[in-house]
Every structure is written in structure tokens, then in C-alpha cells.
Write a structure and sequence with these properties.
Blueprint lengths: L2 E7 L10 H12 L3 H6 L2 E10 L4 E8 L2 H10 L7 E7 L2 H13 L2
The protein binds zinc ion.
Length: 107
């Protein structure tokens, strides 16, 4: 399992709260079956999709195999059409961070 964060932001004007086209894209995305795109882009699972309405930001956590394919996924589902996106590999605190610092510092 490899976790990635998809960090996104959009403008106030492009916000689904204010923009019909963006709203329809999100609505359609919520109703459509994206499992084929996920499989093609080697997204094993969407862990969660967090949104901060008034900051106009999002954080999606995915279990995936390749950051370049996550980029392709974001384009294909339309997320990239009105978001600036950053894809970041993630580690978990208990399973990754703590064992690493224990190993490095001999704790
Ligand atoms: Zn917004």
C-alpha cells in the first residue's frame, strides 16, 4: 500500500458553490462509476475525500501505485479541470514515521 495525498485548490469563481459547471462536474463525479479509470490508473482505493468549503481546498487520500498515474486520473475524472493540484506521497505516523526515527536515532 502506498498512500498519496492529492492537494487541490480552486478559485472562488470556480468553486462548485458559485459555479454551475464545476457543481455539475462534482455532482456527475459523485454519481458516476469511476472504477475503470481507477483501475487503469492503478488507484487501489480512495481512502477519503476531504473538502474545506471556504478555503476552496481539498485533500483526497488514495492508495495508489504511481504518482504519474494519479495525475492522469485527476485529468480523466475532471478534477484537474478547475483545480491546481499537488500529489504528495504520504507516510503514516505509527507505521512509518516512528519506526524510521527510532532506527535513525537508535531510540
Ligand atoms: Zn470552493
Amino acid at each position: 500500500m502506498s498512500l498519496f495525498g492529492i492537494y487541490g485548490s480552486h478559485t472562488v469563481e470556480a468553486c462548485p458553490l458559485n459555479n454551475r459547471k464545476s457543481a455539475e462536474l462534482f455532482y456527475d463525479l459523485s454519481k458516476s462509476d469511476i472504477t475503470k479509470v481507477m483501475k487503469k490508473c492503478k488507484i487501489n482505493k480512495i481512502i477519503e475525500r476531504y473538502h474545506s468549503g471556504l478555503e476552496h481546498t481539498l485533500l483526497w487520500i488514495v492508495d495508489a501505485e504511481d504518482a504519474h498515474l494519479i495525475e492522469k486520473f485527476c485529468v480523466e475524472i475532471g478534477l484537474a479541470s478547475f483545480h491546481t493540484l499537488k500529489i504528495v506521497p504520504l507516510s503514516t505516523f505509527n507505521e512509518d514515521v516512528i519506526p524510521t526515527i527510532k532506527r535513525i536515532h537508535g531510540l
